[in-house]
User: Fold this.
Amino acid sequence: MHKFDIDLKNISKIEGHTHLEAKVRGGKVQSCKLKITEGKRFFREAVIGKSYKTVGQTMSRICGTCSSAHALGSIEAVEKALGIKVSRQTILLRNLLSNAGHLRDHAMHLYFFCLPDILGFDSVLDFDENNKEQHELIHDALDVKEAGNVLCAIVGGRAVHPPNAVVGGFSKFPKKKDLLKAKEKLEECRDKIIKIIDVFHKRDEKFNRKINYAGLINKDYNFLEGKIKTSEGVIIGEKDYDKHLQEVVLPYSSAEGAKWKGKDFMVGALARINVNKESLHKKTQKDVKEYLKEFPSDNIFHNNLAQAIECLHIIDSSIDMIDKVKDSKKEKPAEPKIEDKDYEGVGVVEAPRGTLYYKIKIDGRGIVTDCDLCIPTQQNIIHMEKGIAKYIESMLDEKSKNEISMGVEKMIRAYDPCMSCATHFLKIDWI
Assistant:
């Protein structure tokens, strides 16, 4: 067990194509590489030379599950560059749209990808429909995911790649009856979310690794505004992110990695809860008081618990926001006054899987001249590699090869690196 290679080919349940190779020698993992083989899709180049007004809709196409985050992050960068100030109503609607995307994405990951691990199944399709608990959990999953989709469609105009969010505001506005319908669905999901929080709190897997966490902080735990804080106590403004975050070329991968001040770090739900749990909705804090005692946590498997707690916060905060915007009025998107000079803006939002950065440059004609972005999974790659290596080492003396492979599989799911909906996660060839 102290001398073997792991070759995880064609990993599924992620966005794109990835292999994992690990070499174990003398009880140590000598190398652990996530080889991202997804071809370049040139979204950055797609907006260069185009009007700033096209950025949001173009960049939302990067990802189906995270489309709202990419739209809102790139729109924020444009608005910061051009000095566009949006209304309070726009801010509330954007937060609702962001909440909807997070709720839908977390529900898919927790119920359909991770829950089978906890209950001992390969897939939700293997659940026993005659088992009351399993039957209810499946229906809970569908209800929670639907609530996110409905809210996204009502506010954004579509469940995926929402067209209503534009530079300066919204092109269309939700109707009161539709918002109240969404509120009702959210209220119906609240007890279901508390149930799944308890399920993930009781899971057996545990692996602690001290690491630096980074995420947005603010007074109401929203995903769109604030300053960047790390668990080491550093707090910076959004525009200064690139003074701390460095993108790193991985020669064996088509995706870059990232480091924070030269070291690996982590973003995502676990990071957000670790640095900003005091800002969760008061009702959420009251009902998950015992679970929140786990945080701050260095247990990577608590990332899923953190996602579940975020779902409850999303329910509570969205209900409050709907009450504030249910009588929303039509507003014309704010227009910039563009002068003959160069502009640059930074947009930072929390996507479901972590902090998403956009830096966009625009010329005096309103044309995009440069676009740079750093996505959450990119920031987590190096941390994932090191964490997987240490996790393998921790299992060498006690676990069989099959148990190690399943453990690695569950850990990667805990990180939630932009997974898709494939049933089987990976195939392991032990050499």
Notes: The longest helix spans residues 88-119. The domain at 85-205+301-334 is CATH 1.10.645.10 (Cytochrome-c3 Hydrogenase; chain B).
